[in-house]
Every structure is written in structure tokens, then in C-alpha cells.
Amino acid sequence: MVEKQDLPVHRARAFLEPGPILLVTSCHDGERNVMTMGWHMVLEFTPSLVGCMISVGNHSFELIRQSAECVLNLPTLDMLDAVVAIGNCSGRDKDKFAGFNLDVQAADHIRAPLLTACHANFERRLPDDRMVKDYNLFIFEIVKAHVAPQPKHPRTLHYTGDGVFVVAGKTVSRRSDFRLGLLGNGR
Amino acid sequence: MVEKQDLPVHRARAFLEPGPILLVTSCHDGERNVMTMGWHMVLEFTPSLVGCMISVGNHSFELIRQSAECVLNLPTLDMLDAVVAIGNCSGRDKDKFAGFNLDVQAADHIRAPLLTACHANFERRLPDDRMVKDYNLFIFEIVKAHVAPQPKHPRTLHYTGDGVFVVAGKTVSRRSDFRLGLLGNGR
């Protein structure tokens, strides 16, 4: 396993805006869990804000709400088995970390663990839960980003429903056609 | 151009959850515009809700806010030139529909036009603008979905920043490993 590097948090958009399935780890009061999540969006570069829909029916919901923190972990194609298995059982019934042999590391700023096998891990705190009541919509701030140095464009998984994932394919650069002010991953 | 078909609106997630770049068309008071958008998320199946971040600096912002409606259009790899060009100029300076030869069709329920060349078009109304002030976050409801019958998994564009797009690649089905309650595109 290659050691991950710190990424300035405003650059997390490079990995989140493409819309991958994520694994969300949480920890509260001695209990921890991991869930899959596909409903999320970037909201701001600085502070580095991300909106996430976490259904109240998920076991992770209260762990995240009560602890007001979680980690977004970015899995890739080689982790598809784990992604599907994690999404198809509940932390109510099972310790998914042990059950699916998930190696973890301690986060720097929060209690929820980092999933070692993932390409990137984003530690997040919850500054705004006003929209949780109406939409199960949490607004998190990324406070630390850990990213594997290679590959630059990981083979992420994008969920379409019905058990079908689209895998991130080739990349196309149109950098030379962009206005300077629109380049970069922050502002 | 193949004729599009109606899709039940709760199934829009199949095209939006994977996280593609979208083209947003709007119309207000005789003026219309089109912009690119990468910051969006599915929020609910029924009603079919989508959250979108539209920066107040965009010319489309007021057209969308005032009209309280817009269309999400889903472009594919063959439209990359138009996507980049649309994202790199402002409707303040230019009629992008004429400038980029964008064919349009009338929507069924709203005034903003559908972009004919796109794989799908989602007509949307704005039921909730409470989060616009703090986050430029609009919560829209899809009221009509028009989708090309083929291909089932279009080659959508996913933006990473820095002028680089990831193109949707191969699909992988793990349908047989899913719990029945998690299949389908609605609930």
C-alpha cells in the first residue's frame, strides 16, 4: 500500500465532483460503522464544503449526527466486492470492518477511521445540519485530505441504480480552451 | 436525432447519480441562457429532487431564481467542444444558443428550452430556495424527463477541475449481489 499524501482541502473537488460512490466511516460513543453513499455534491472550495444525503434509515445516520463528523473514503474498481457487500447489509446486524476485512488507520482530526485500501480519505466535520430534518441533507466541511499519489485519475465507481456501476474511463484535457480564471481547483 | 422517450421522473437518478457535467438552460422575461454545471446531487426519488449549486456570479443565476425553473440537459462526449465553450463565456456577453449552434425544442411544462443534442433533458421547478442565500444551493423538483432510448449508458463527461474531464467507461453489473429492496430506481 503506497503512503498517502496530504492534499490541500480545497482541491478535494478533483475527486468528488466526478460523482463517485463513496464509503462513509463514522464513530460515536465507542461504536463505528461504514456505509456506501452516492448522493453527494461539492458546495464550496474554501471552506471545503460537501453536501451529503444520508437517509435516516441508515445505521450510520445517528452515529454521524451525534458525533458531527465522518470520513469520506474513495473506493476504486478493485474494491467493488467490498462496496457492494457494505451497501447490502446494515451495521445494526454486523461489524462490517471485521466482516469484510477492512484495514483502517486513525484519522488526524476526528474519531472515525480512514479506510486504508481507498484511494483517498477526507476527514469532515459537520458545520450545518439545518437541512437534515427536511432532506436528510448534511453539509460537511473537509478538514483534512489524504490522497494516494498515483494514479492521478483513479478508476472510480459511479452508481446508476439497479445494481449497475459505470467505471471512470479515459480522461480528456481541454485545459488550453479554458479561461485562466476557471482553471485550478480552488479560488 | 433519435426521438426521446418519457422516463418516470423517479428514475432520473440513473443519469444524475453518476455525477456528470450538465448543461442548464433557463428563460426569464424573454431572455434565455445556458451554463455548464458540475455541482449537483440527487436528494429524493419521489418527489424527484435534485440539489444544484449555481454561483451568484453566473448570468443564469437570476434567470433561474426569478423564473423558479430550468432544464437539466445531459451532454455526452460528442458534445465536449460545446460543453467547454459554453462554460468559458457568459450569457452577459453572448447569445450562446446562436453562437454555438444549439438546437432547442420547447419543454412541456416550463419555458426554458430543451437542448436537442443532449442525451436527456429534465424539466425542473424550484420548490425550495432557502439554502440559496448561504450556499447558492437550489433544490429543484424534476417534473418531466425526456431520455434517448439508446445507448442505455451514455458516454457522459465528469469534471475534475483544471480543464480535465473523465469519460464514463465500461459498466459492471452486480445486480445478483443486491438485496431486492435496494434494486430499482425508485422506492
Break the fold down into its secondary structure elements and pairings.
The structure is a homodimer of 187-residue chains.
Chain A (H helix, E strand, L loop, with lengths): L4 E3 L5 H4 L5 E7 L2 E7 L2 E5 L4 E5 L6 H8 L1 E6 L5 H8 L8 H4 L4 E2 L8 E2 L4 E9 L3 H4 L1 E11 L9 E3 L4 E10 L14
Antiparallel strand pairs in A: 1-10, 2-3, 2-6, 4-5, 5-10, 6-9, 7-8, 9-10, 11-12
Descriptors for this entry?
Pnp Oxidase, Chain A, 12 strands, 15% helix, two-stranded antiparallel ribbon, 5 helices, 187 residues, homodimer
What is the compact description of this entry?
Two copies of one chain form a homodimer. Chain A has helices at 13-16, 60-67, 80-87, 96-99, 132-135, and strands spanning 5-7, 22-28, 31-37, 40-44, 49-53, 69-74, 104-105, 114-115, 120-128, 137-147, 157-159, 164-173. Chain A has 187 residues and is mainly beta.
DSSP strand tally of chain A: 12
Give the number of helices of chain A. 5
The tally of domains of chain A stands at: 1
Name the biggest interface: A-B, 60 and 60 residues
CATH architecture of chain A: Roll
Based on CA atoms alone, the radius of gyration of chain A comes out at 16 Å
In whole angstroms, the N-to-C terminal distance of chain A is 32 Å
Q: In oligomeric terms, what are we looking at?
A: homodimer
What would the CATH topology of chain A be? Pnp Oxidase, Chain A
CATH class of chain A: Mainly Beta
What does this molecule look like?
2 copies of one chain form a homodimer. With 187 residues, the first copy, chain A, is mostly beta strands. Chain A has one domain (5-182): Electron Transport, Fmn-binding Protein, Chain A (Pnp Oxidase, Chain A, Roll). The first copy, chain A, contains 5 helices and 12 strands. Chain A has helices spanning 13-16, 60-67, 80-87, 96-99, 132-135; strands spanning 5-7, 22-28, 31-37, 40-44, 49-53, 69-74, 104-105, 114-115, 120-128, 137-147, 157-159, 164-173. In chain A, the strands form 3 sheets. In chain A, strands 1, 2, 3, 4, 5, 6, 9 and 10 form an 8-stranded antiparallel beta sheet that branches. In chain A, strand 11 (157-159) and strand 12 (164-173) form a beta hairpin. Chain A is globular, with a radius of gyration of 16 Å. The N and C termini of chain A lie far apart (32 Å). The interface between A and B is large, with 60 and 60 residues. Chains A, B: Belongs to the flavoredoxin family. Chains A, B: It comes from Novosphingobium guangzhouense. Chains A, B: InterPro entries: Flavin_Rdtase-like_dom, Flavoredoxin, Split_barrel_FMN-bd.
